[in-house]
Amino acid sequence: MNVVLGIGGGIAAYKAAELARALMERGVSVQVAMTAAAQEFVRPLTFAALTGRKAITGLFPQGTGEDTAASAVEHIRVAEEADLLAVAPATADLLAKFANGLADDFLSTLYLAFDGPVVIAPAMNTRMWRHPATRRNLETLRERGHNIVEPEEGLLACGTVGPGRLADPERIAAVVMGILDARRDLDGETVLVTAGPTQEPIDPVRFLSNRSSGKMGYAIAAEAAARGARVILVSGPVSLDAPPGVAVVPVRTAAEMRSAVFDRLAEATIVVKAAAVADYYVPEPAAHKIKKTGAAVSLALAPTPDILAELGQKKGDRLLVGFAAETGDVAAEARRKLIAKNCDMVAGNLVGREGTGFGAADNEVVLVLRDGGTVEIPRAPKRVVAGRIFDELVKLRTAAHATR
Question: What residues are labeled active site?
Answer without folding.
Answer: 158
